[in-house]
Each structure stands twice: as structure tokens, then as C-alpha cells.
Specification:
alpha/beta, Rossmann fold, GMP Synthetase, Chain A, domain 3, 3 domains, six-stranded mixed β-sheet, about 30% helix
């Protein structure tokens, strides 16, 4: 059962090491780090895990109070939005500089958030011999936790405390065989209208104003004996003057919903000339997460058929984004109901493909035929033998191939095998993964 992905926000004044701490938790350099304050302007978020719990961690810009600078005000506003979105807040402070008046003001603001807050004193490089961090008891936020984000000292203890404060993973109230369907896409492409049309009633608020849907809304539907749980997502309402914060927090929520989904229906505006970069990011995110994907081109009734046909639109999109050749496309009008019912059948079909299991003998028959047609290239003059293969997982379908040189097969040959498996079994709308293992593991 998939758990809800909680959010941990890292906040504090400029140049206390928030981005360094963020990178330490994520385990790779995602956020730009610099000694100058104010480098982080856009917010970064990434998946992280500790002690078996998965969560999103959010790196925010440094909070500056009472500044006349428009950028400082924008960064502050977005950091406070992160606080409202978070399940746990990490208030990062600088142990070298001690308690700063701005730390006190931020702590006062966080006290009213109703969220659990951990005070983490960074730049304590001489653990456990440096007691300077103890002065942060004065913030009145409980025991301060020492850490050196740059070396990693103390980070495990901090993460233990973070994980202990995360909300318990909630159980899905729907049947075990329910298909969770995330309806995702840019604002104002018709996601809520589509869900209402599928359900046959106005269950979700629809407006011409982009961003009307504030929170993900779970709505079950029985179809052909199965329960489909639709999650309509559009992020936050336009209640902030800062446009990019709307898109940012919409992206966080979309990431959550994609993580929890079985099938993602990515809605795009068919009347647009090209797919937007944000459309492609959503498609790629769902595909890389191993979810079933359906591309739904909405507003097809607005497209002039003399200038664009379905085959032409499909060809243009598939040529631009190669993995979309395995993604089914359906051209609909949520307004008129044109071809909308077909979406339900596609959801069930894609979910079945994602959970399909191929017998081992059949895997090896197809694999042997591919190897005979095109043997693997030599590795340092030695023959590479792929001994056998088997399917090791579903949702998404994952195959293990056992070989004497698992690191020697080049990417182009793995793509050849991938395409051969696709020709044999299609796996429409779902990613297909191939893992190479040493023959000694057989």
C-alpha cells in the first residue's frame, strides 16, 4: 500500500546553511551552495528517505524581515507558504553566530504555525566537544540539535527526530484492488471538467480562473466492477501575488499525488501548438516514477480539423518525446463529452498492463531470439553471454537479465532488448525496466 508523502520544510535566515543541509539529507548536490547570502531564491524540493520513511524535503530561501526589496519579500512569502504546506519544520540556525534577533522573530512566527518545529544548530564542527549550540534553548522551541551539514556530523540524529515527528502513514480506505488515478497537468487545461464529466455530476469546482482547485480531491467511481479513485490536482488557488509560488506548490502536491497513484492521466491542451515544458515535466515525472501514463488531449473540439488531424498531432508529439511512443493518447472534449468514456477503459487496460506478469519460459524464448538476431558486442575481446532472464516485479514490469559482464552491455544494446520486449508484450502505457545482474547470482 502506498503511503502519503509527507513534507519537511527547511527554513531560516540567510546563509545559515539550509541548502547544504538539504543536499546532505537528499544525498546529492541538488541545491546551489554559496557563501553569499540569498543565493537560494527559487525553492528546491526532492524526495528523501531515512529509516524506511520517505518524505519530500523543501529548501527555502533565507527569510529577511522588514526589507523594502521586492525579492526579499517574495522569498519570505514563499518560505511561509512552505511552512503552511509542511508536516515538520526544521528551523536552521548558525551556531557560530549564536542567537540572532532574526532567529527569534522567525521562531515567534513558527510557534503560531501549529506544526512541529525542530531547532537545528548548524556549523557545529567539533561535535561532541562544542556546547555553543546550547544557547538556542533561548528560542523557546525545545532542545536544539547540533549538526555539521558540511561534514554530516549529527545529521543522523536530526533525521531520527524528523522521522519520529512525521505523521503516520494513513491507510487507503478504498478496496485493495482500487485503481488510484491522478489527473494532472497545467492549470486550466480542463482537469476538473474532465473528472466531472466522467462522474456525471459536478463533484469538483470548475472555473475559468486557473488554479481553482486548491487541494487534491479523492473521488471514487465504480466501473466494470472496479473502483477507480480519481484525484483531481491543480495546486493552490491564486491567493498570492507571487505567481511562481503557485506553480511551485502545485508541483509539490502533484509530486505527492503521482507518488501515490497507479495511473496518471496527464491532461494537455490540444488547441496549443506544442506541448508546454511543464506538460513534459509532468509526463516524465510520472513515467520515471513507474506509473501507468495516459496522455489526454483535451479541448479537441477547438482544434481546426483543416489544420491539424489526430495522426498529425500524435506524430509531432511522439517524435519530440520518444518514450511517448508507448503511451496511449486519447483526444477528447470535456465540455461536450466527446470520447471521454474511452478514458475509463484505457485506465483499466493500462493498469492491467502495468501489473502483467510474463512466465519465465516465455521471457527466455523472446530473449534467446533477440540474442540470436543481434549478439551482444564483445567486452575487451571477450564474449558477453546473457544466460537467462526472468520477470522479478510488476507495477512497473521489471526484468532481471543474468550475464557474465553486467556492466559491459552498452546502453544501445539494452535499448535493443527493451524494444524487443516491447514488440513481444507491448506493456502499453507503462514503463518497462531491465536490471542486469551477475551470472554468479543465478
Amino acid at each position: 500500500m502506498t503511503e502519503r508523502l509527507p513534507v519537511v520544510a527547511v527554513v531560516g535566515r540567510p546563509n545559515v546553511g539550509k541548502s547544504t543541509f538539504f543536499n546532505r539529507v537528499v544525498g546529492r548536490r541538488v541545491a546551489i551552495v554559496d557563501d553569499r547570502p540569498g543565493v537560494t531564491r527559487d525553492r528546491n524540493f526532492a524526495r528523501a528517505d531515512w529509516a524506511g520513511r520517505h518524505f519530500l524535503i523543501v529548501d527555502t530561501g533565507g527569510i529577511v524581515e522588514a526589507s523594502d526589496d521586492s525579492m526579499d519579500r517574495a522569498i519570505r512569502e514563499q518560505a511561509l507558504l512552505a511552512v503552511r504546506e509542511a508536516d515538520v519544520i526544521v528551523l536552521l540556525v548558525d551556531a557560530r553566530e549564536g542567537v540572532h534577533p532574526l532567529d527569534e522573530r522567525i521562531a515567534d512566527e513558527l510557534r503560531s504555525s501549529g506544526r512541529p518545529v525542530l531547532v537545528v544548530a548548524n556549523k557545529v564542527d567539533n561535535l561532541p566537544d562544542d556546547p555553543a549550540y546550547q544557547e538556542f534553548w533561548a528560542l523557546g522551541m525545545g532542545e536544539p540539535l547540533p549538526v555539521s551539514a558540511i561534514s554530516g556530523k549529527g545529521s543522523g540524529d536530526v533525521l531520527d527526530r524528523v522521522v519520529a515527528l512525521l505523521p503516520e502513514a494513513g491507510e487507503d480506505p478504498h478496496p485493495e484492488d482500487a485503481v488510484r488515478v491522478a489527473v494532472v497537468g497545467k492549470p486550466n487545461v480542463g482537469k476538473s471538467s474532465l473528472v466531472n464529466r466522467l462522474l456525471g455530476e459536478e463533484r469538483v469546482v470548475v472555473s475559468d480562473v486557473a488554479g481553482t482547485t486548491r487541494d487534491p480531491v479523492d473521488t471514487p467511481l465504480r466501473y466494470h466492477g472496479r473502483t477507480l479513485v480519481f484525484v483531481d490536482t491543480a495546486g493552490l488557488r491564486r491567493q498570492s501575488r507571487i505567481k511562481d509560488s503557485i506553480e511551485y506548490y502545485s508541483t509539490i502536491r502533484t509530486e505527492r499525488v503521482v507518488h501515490e497513484a497507479d495511473v496518471c492521466v496527464v491532461v494537455v491542451d490540444a488547441s496549443a501548438e506544442e506541448l508546454h515544458a511543464q506538460d513534459i515535466r509532468v509526463l516524465r515525472s510520472a513515467w520515471d516514477a513507474g506509473k501507468g501514463v495516459i496522455l489526454l488531449a483535451n479541448k479537441w473540439d477547438l482544434v481546426e480539423k483543416d489544420t491539424m488531424t489526430v495522426p498529425e498531432w500524435e506524430k509531432r508529439v511522439r517524435e519530440r518525446i520518444p518514450f511517448l511512443q508507448w503511451v496511449p493518447m486519447v483526444f477528447v472534449s470535456a465540455l461536450t463529452g466527446q470520447r471521454v468514456r474511452k478514458v475509463l477503459d484505457l485506465i483499466l487496460e493500462v493498469d492491467a498492463q502495468r501489473r502483467r506478469r510474463i512466465e519465465t519460459h516465455e521471457v527466455n524464448e523472446v530473449l534467446e531470439a533477440l540474442l540470436r538476431r543481434q549478439p551482444p558486442p564483445l567486452h575487451r575481446g571477450r564474449r558477453v553471454r546473457v544466460k537467462y532472464g526472468t520477470q522479478v516485479a510488476v507495477a512497473p514490469p521489471t526484468f532481471a537479465l543474468f550475464t557474465n559482464f553486467p556492466k559491459a552491455l552498452p546502453e544501445h544494446y539494452i535499448r535493443y532488448l527493451h524494444n524487443g520486449f516491447r514488440e513481444a508484450w507491448t506493456f502499453m502505457g507503462t514503463p518497462l525496466r531491465i536490471r542486469l545482474r551477475s551470472g554468479r547470482d543465478a
